[in-house]
Amino acid sequence: MQALCQLDVQGPDILPTLRRFFREYTDDDLVITLAEQWTAGAWEYHQQCDEEIARAAEKWKLSRLSLVDRSILRLGVYQLLRCPDIPGKVAINEAIELAKKYSGAQSPRFVNGVMDAIYRNKKPEPETLSPEHE
Fold first, then answer.
1. What pTM value is reported for the model?
2. Residues 62, 87, 105: CA angle, nearest 5 degrees
3. Over the stretch 89-118, which tens digit does the pLDDT of each residue have?
4. Per-residue pLDDT reduced to its tens digit, 7-51
5. Cα(111)–Cα(73) distance, rounded to whole angstroms?
6. Strand, helix or coil at 11?
7. Which of 3.40.1000.70, 3.40.140.10, 3.40.50.720, 1.10.940.10 would CATH assign to domain 2-122?
8. DSSP of 37-78, one letter per residue?
9. How far is the CA of 5 from the CAs of 1, 8, 69, in angstroms?
C-alpha cells in the first residue's frame, strides 16, 4: 500500500527501486517478491481498478478519496480481480485491516463497502472441465 502511494505521487520511474524499499521492512525474499508482484500488478492495472472503484463507490469521485484509501482499494481490487490464488474474502479483510491501521475512522467501513460491492459483482472464474467432460 505504501509503495502504491509512492507510485501515485512519483510515477512509475520508482518501480525499479521497489525491492530496496521493501528490504527496509523485511529480509524475507518471499515476502519481498510477493510485495513487488502485487505492487507492480496493481499499478499496471490501476486504471481498471479505478474504474471498478468508481462504479462501486457511487457517490464518491475517485479524486476525493485520500491517497491512502485509494492505494488500499487499488491493491485490494487488484488482488480480488487478478490474483485467483487469494480468496476474495481474504483480499477484502486485508484491505479493511490496512484501512484500520493507516487511514481514518470511517475508512474501514468505506473500504469494506466498496470491496464487497466489487466482490459481489465480480464475474465468476471460468470453471475448468474435468477430462471426462471433454
1. 0.87
2. 45
3. 999 999 999 999 999 999 999 999 999 999
4. 999 999 999 999 999 999 999 999 999 999 999 999 999 999 999
5. 7
6. coil
7. 1.10.940.10
8. HHHHHHHHTHHHHHHHHHHHSTT--GGGS-HHHHHHHHHHHH
9. 6, 5, 9
